[in-house]
Amino acid sequence: MKKHIAIILAAGKGTRMKSNIPKQYMTIEEKPVIYYTIKAFEESYIDEIILVTGKDDIEYVKKEIVDKYHLQKVTKIVGGGANRYDSVNAGINAINSSYDTDCKLSEPTSAGNINRQSTTDSSAIDKIYVHIHDGARPCISQEELNDMRDNVELYNACILAVKVKDTIKIADSNNNVLNTPKRDTLWAVHTPQSFELSLIKTAYQNMYKALLNMTPEQEKAANITDDAMVIEKYSDISVKIVEGKYTNIKITTPEDLETAKNYLKQSTKNS
Fold this sequence. Notes:
The protein is α/β, with parallel strands linked by helices. The chain has 8 helices and 11 strands. Strands 5-4-1-6-10-7-11 form a 7-stranded mixed sheet, sandwiched between helices. Strands 2-3 form a two-stranded antiparallel ribbon.
């Protein structure tokens, strides 16, 4: 039996939204953005959801989102880190620390722990897969989630992405064009990014070992912006691209909020 766990990242500040409210807590039809994101995974094959939030937001998220909207698959809420990869690592570590040898959720040790037991018989589990998703991507479809499940079970490492529509230019620090890559080789990467658990865990361990020997400047230059990069740099596994939908936008600007609202309305009509 295969077990699928989602790690949903909701620790960002969203400075480009020009709002004091983090983008994942801004509302669409009187519900926070993160609600729609969690709900999509709640309605899918995903067995459990781990939320990674700002450390000061754990109690708020538990009471005002998870409990308020009766989101039953959320088993743990943990605080994120300084970088995206630190937040992902916190989510991965929460998987390891949340289970005893019987794959049951441990007793709560903080306000963010939710005392729920896995409904999956641990003795029958032969693989665990992790799906890492941006909390500010509420328009993920069930079709995309199903495609990620099927592909991660085949390839162990895959990312959701869409083909780039525009011509892309590579420029220098003075904005002079250096070259133009072939458009048909370029993909805009979305989430979820999905991996077999031991693979992503080992890659992250290798990354942190490498970071210990880096200066702050070298760490910044490494520019690790997504989980696939960790696999690319710190494992020998190839990452498979799964073609997604352009509607799976990440809410980054005020305009994105209105676009997401329209996409969500449309998906509700079609369901």
